[in-house]
Each structure stands twice: as structure tokens, then as C-alpha cells.
């Protein structure tokens, strides 16, 4: 797995159970995943020779994130390395412009969009779409980085900002959505696929903060529609591994695809404690071409809340407190230094009573962050 | 954790989630747990200097097995190392003679026993106990090793065998039991304790092959009695960490304590998939003096069946087959070379219908072993 973040870290327990050796290429020996695997490789994921050398020790190359340069991945594939998901599929998670074009060609509902070349084109797009737009760099964004909300009053220097990265810019209509959903599926090389229950995800400042599985009050036909869309994207793009399809659910009940991720995704963390097979285990099974495990939920509801760092770097007393307060809460810690706003872990609660599960999970996250003190 | 076996290996997923660094002292870099932790220490667990050096890198020293010499543990404690469970408690899992004496002094029902000095004393014991006895070396036995079934007809060389190890020998009455049970508890340094549901365990040739949680058809008062006995032993012996109390349930419904283990135990493996908090997580929480997690079962029944090696060293096709046949089965692989009779993994199935769960779990174990081919 290329990348030493928490996604690679959370893949290790699945690898331990399956008897799979998880090798990790990390930028730093102290990274989240590097702490928990045998002999992590500290190397530069942007350097082809480092990737080539790492790939020699592996049967299959897969990813903790989308930031490996596509040209390197193509070169690795050409040299015979088994890259999963493959370069052609992965491009649609790396490049939002390519993703929009492909999904539109497939007839999948998306926000209206245009790849724009300069602030002048942005201004025209804004006028044509009700006075608002969302600008996104087509490559390199994550967790709200690389996204700008624009309207007719936005200062010119802000409108100019997205163009500074030197990559194409995508303008999208501002969708009036009721909530955000995510459909996570896993697909193996010979085409077996499983779909997890569709979840509701809540973002704050572009960062996922809460996931409820399954999405409450969702008509089953609409959930099936979301799963079918995700399975269809996985099949048509030839995705191998986990694919997360983030969607907007509009007030009229329409589903519009927002983003794709081709790796275990924050909206699937609930599955570690809440599903028969976690997304991490199914990602491994898929990229290794093993039969996939059941994605079924184990409880009527599972709530996952991310723990974001607060102002106090030493969270150990709070960590103990939340465990003492709630012996049924599942705490997941990423081994990262605490910094304000940084994802340092998550908590999961499962059971029948959604309101109580949400209260329990949020209490723990808020307490660790230092927002409440009892 | 001293010891690189599957118990240390299965502790790693719990450590990953808790954000705890699990260090492992292994005899060989290829051992089960050594494969899955950062920088395992390859050293001799029988050498005090190796243990001392390893302990310097750890906050707490705990164990994958009971084979570290008690004198070394005393020396480490004297040098200020935090050893959990402590030497005085652990002695009762290391020395069956000490265990029997202590439990008898506590008034806990056990098989009738005597520490015997020679084959002559064995012969007297056999005559006094209905013509049968079980002989055990007081130290060093595991998985049926160090145990002999004796009766009046047993050949003298067999009766002499247990004495060859040079450690005291325990003679016990042959108990006419209906089944074997195990009560697993975890206890932290300041005395918090949790008790897992009492399970039924099935042994074959001294090796645990199946565990059903909870023990089917067990009157709740008897289950509570077993849990109370285990909690009382943990408290009186000052155990820190997981304590497994193996018991015989006689046809009259009496519970007799057979063995103690002070570490995660085969009879607790079901808890990884079947309980809110696994025995491995609670062992870590206990030895680190963190609040303990709920030991509650997540399903009406959980069945664990050990995978023992068969004659075919390459089990990969069978491994794939059982995953393809049953997407709800949880497969745990220990990363060990397959040898006939060796524990190389286990499978877990959970749900409502005990007969079907047993069929599913046994099918997988039998198929991987090569005993069945469809």
C-alpha cells in the first residue's frame, strides 16, 4: 500500500486476520501506518524509482490516497507491476474533470459543470447558474482543500486562487441538497462486487465528521438506486478494490454524484465495527482477487464520528475518560500528533436507538476535542 | 509482549485501534506475531539480559504464553519493570501444583489431586481413585503436551515418563465430566473486572478444537457461578490482564476448575468477532490500566473452530474456497507454516441458529485440513 496514513493503518488489522503481509510505503517512519507494520519502507511516492523498488517486494500495489502521479502508475503497469485499482480506473478519482466527463457520458446524474480556463469563464458560469458556483482544482484536493464557494460578489483574488495551482479548474453548480450520502462498494478483478448499506455523511468545513449507517429514513428503492449507480461506476470504470461514491440527495429526492474515491473511505469506517466484513478487509480481498466478504450491517444503526484534534495536545486523560464513561464505544486511534482540526481518530457506536448512538459518539469526540468537560 | 505466537499476533489489531505500540519479543523473525509488528525483537525469552533489554523499550511487560522462567520475572520486577500479570499471580498459571494448592485453600472445587514423587505414589493414587488418574507435569505443558492418562494396566515406562522432565508431577482423579467450560475474565490493576459469557469448549487429543459462546443450555445460575469463580480467582490471586478458567461441568452439574491461563486464551478467540470488546483488547486495556470494554456478546451464538494443519502444505486453494462458499464466515490466519495437527488459524461464525453455525465453521476447518473435498 502506497501511503502511510490512517487508511493504511486500518488495513493492517484486516491483513493480520487474513494472513496477508501488508507492506507500506510511507513518507516518514513515524506516520500512522508505518507504526504498525513490519519494516515500513520510507520513500518518496512521487519518485518512480522508489515506487519501482517498493513494488518489487509486493504481489499487488494499492493505495492509501490518490496522490501518486498517473504517469508513474502507467510506467509501473508497463513494467508488469500489478496496480489495483489500475491506472485507467484510478484516473477518475485523481482528476475531477475526467470523472465528470466520464460519468456524464454514462448518463449518471451529476451537478452541472464546466472545466474553466480563467476567472472570466468563472464569471460567465456563475451568471448562468443562479449567481453561485463551486470551484475545484481537478487534481490534488482532499478534505475540503482545493474547493472554493463562489458567488457574484466574491473578490477577484479569491476567484483567481484556484488557478494558481496550475491544474485545470472545474466549475460546478451549487447544489441545493438535503443531505450527503455515500455508496461504498468493493469489486474484484474478475467482477465480483458487493455493496455496503448506503450511509449519510455529515461534513463540516469540507471534513467528514459523522456517518450514520444506514442513511436514516431512506426509501429502500432510493438506496438501491444509489448502490446500483456505485456498482455500475465500478464495473464500467473497471475499478478493483473499494470505490466510494459520494452523492448529494436533493430535497426532491434526486441523487447527484459528487466525488469518487478508489480506496477505503471515511464514509466506510463504520464498517470495522458495524459490518460483517470491513471495507478494509474487502479492499484487501478485492485487490488480491480473493472472494469478497459480506457487506451486511451487524446492527440496526452504526454511528461513526471523527475525532478532530483540539487545542490540547495531550488527550490521554480524555481518551481514558471516554472509555470509562462508555464501555460499549469503539475507539480508533490513528497514532498521529494532535493538532487543531486534524483527524486523529474516530469512535463508533452501534445499536437500535439512533439518537442515543449519536449522543454517545458525539460526546466522546467533543470531549476528546476539549469542547465539553463533563 | 513476550512471545511471538498467534496470541501476540491477534493482539496487534487491538493495539492498532487503541493507538498502542505493541512490541513483541520473538524467538524467530518469522514467527506469527513478528510478521505483523514494527521491529519485532528477536531474542531469547529464557535469557534475563534479553528480557531486561526488551523491557527497557516498553511501559508494561506482558505475555503470549507462560514459559518465561519465574526467577527472571522476579528479577525484572525487582529492577522496577512493570510485569502484568505479576510474578506472584502468574506462578499459578505456570505451576499446576501451586495452582491446585491455592485454589483448594480458597475452597474452590477442583478434581482431587496429589503431588507425587515417583511411580510408586502414582500406583497408590490410582488405586485410591477408582483405578484411573491423570498425570501432569506441574510446569511446561500445553495443548495436551505434559498430560498422561493412566490406569491400573498402564505400562510402567509410561507411568515413569512424566517424571523424566525433572519437575514435580501432579496426579489428579479422572473426572467424569459432561463437558468442558471456560470462564474468561479481565481485571485491571485497580480491580475493575469484566466477565465474558461462559463458553463450552471441545478438546480433541488435548487441543481445543471448538468453542461455542455462550455454552448451550447452561442454566444462568450456573453460568453466574462460573463467572464468580473466575472473578474471585482473578481478585484473590491479583491477576492483571485476561484470566481464563477452564472447568469441567460434571453430569451432576458441578463445576470443577481444571486449568488457569493468564493471557488471552483459545477459548476467548470467539470474542474478536462475537463480543463488543475482544479478549485481546481487554488484555491490553487491563495491563495498561485503561478502563475495560464491554464483554457482551453481539449475537445469540458465536462458534469458533480451530483450523489444524492437514497433510497438504499448500492450503491457498482451500482458503479461497471457504471464503467463496461462505461470505459471512470470519477467517483468521496465523501466518504459520502448515504442519499436520498444528493450529494455523481459526474461523468464526455468529448468528441465531447454532446447528447451522457449527456446520459452517466445521465445514471450513475440515475443508482446509483436507478432510472433506466439497
UniProtKB/TrEMBL annotation, chains A, B:
<protein>
    <recommendedName>
        <fullName>N5-carboxyaminoimidazole ribonucleotide synthase</fullName>
        <ecNumber>6.3.4.18</ecNumber>
    </recommendedName>
</protein>
<dbReference type="InterPro" id="IPR016185">
    <property type="entry name" value="PreATP-grasp_dom_sf"/>
</dbReference>
<dbReference type="InterPro" id="IPR040686">
    <property type="entry name" value="PurK_C"/>
</dbReference>
<dbReference type="Pfam" id="PF22660">
    <property type="entry name" value="RS_preATP-grasp-like"/>
</dbReference>
<feature type="binding site">
    <location>
        <begin position="258"/>
        <end position="259"/>
    </location>
    <ligand>
        <name>ATP</name>
    </ligand>
</feature>
<comment type="similarity">
    <text>Belongs to the PurK/PurT family.</text>
</comment>
<dbReference type="InterPro" id="IPR011054">
    <property type="entry name" value="Rudment_hybrid_motif"/>
</dbReference>
<dbReference type="InterPro" id="IPR005875">
    <property type="entry name" value="PurK"/>
</dbReference>
<dbReference type="GO" id="GO:0046872">
    <property type="term" value="F:metal ion binding"/>
</dbReference>
<keyword id="KW-0547">Nucleotide-binding</keyword>
<feature type="binding site">
    <location>
        <position position="136"/>
    </location>
    <ligand>
        <name>ATP</name>
    </ligand>
</feature>
<comment type="function">
    <text>Catalyzes the ATP-dependent conversion of 5-aminoimidazole ribonucleotide (AIR) and HCO(3)- to N5-carboxyaminoimidazole ribonucleotide (N5-CAIR).</text>
</comment>
<dbReference type="GO" id="GO:0006189">
    <property type="term" value="P:'de novo' IMP biosynthetic process"/>
</dbReference>
<dbReference type="InterPro" id="IPR054350">
    <property type="entry name" value="PurT/PurK_preATP-grasp"/>
</dbReference>
<feature type="binding site">
    <location>
        <begin position="172"/>
        <end position="175"/>
    </location>
    <ligand>
        <name>ATP</name>
    </ligand>
</feature>
<dbReference type="GO" id="GO:0004638">
    <property type="term" value="F:phosphoribosylaminoimidazole carboxylase activity"/>
</dbReference>
<dbReference type="GO" id="GO:0034028">
    <property type="term" value="F:5-(carboxyamino)imidazole ribonucleotide synthase activity"/>
</dbReference>
<feature type="domain" description="ATP-grasp">
    <location>
        <begin position="100"/>
        <end position="288"/>
    </location>
</feature>
<dbReference type="InterPro" id="IPR011761">
    <property type="entry name" value="ATP-grasp"/>
</dbReference>
<keyword id="KW-0436">Ligase</keyword>
<dbReference type="GO" id="GO:0005829">
    <property type="term" value="C:cytosol"/>
</dbReference>
<dbReference type="InterPro" id="IPR003135">
    <property type="entry name" value="ATP-grasp_carboxylate-amine"/>
</dbReference>
<keyword id="KW-0067">ATP-binding</keyword>
<dbReference type="Pfam" id="PF17769">
    <property type="entry name" value="PurK_C"/>
</dbReference>
<comment type="pathway">
    <text>Purine metabolism; IMP biosynthesis via de novo pathway; 5-amino-1-(5-phospho-D-ribosyl)imidazole-4-carboxylate from 5-amino-1-(5-phospho-D-ribosyl)imidazole (N5-CAIR route): step 1/2.</text>
</comment>
<comment type="subunit">
    <text>Homodimer.</text>
</comment>
<feature type="binding site">
    <location>
        <position position="180"/>
    </location>
    <ligand>
        <name>ATP</name>
    </ligand>
</feature>
<feature type="binding site">
    <location>
        <position position="96"/>
    </location>
    <ligand>
        <name>ATP</name>
    </ligand>
</feature>
<dbReference type="InterPro" id="IPR013815">
    <property type="entry name" value="ATP_grasp_subdomain_1"/>
</dbReference>
<keyword id="KW-0658">Purine biosynthesis</keyword>
<comment type="function">
    <text>Catalyzes the ATP-dependent conversion of 5-aminoimidazole ribonucleotide (AIR) and HCO(3)(-) to N5-carboxyaminoimidazole ribonucleotide (N5-CAIR).</text>
</comment>
<dbReference type="Pfam" id="PF02222">
    <property type="entry name" value="ATP-grasp"/>
</dbReference>
<dbReference type="GO" id="GO:0005524">
    <property type="term" value="F:ATP binding"/>
</dbReference>
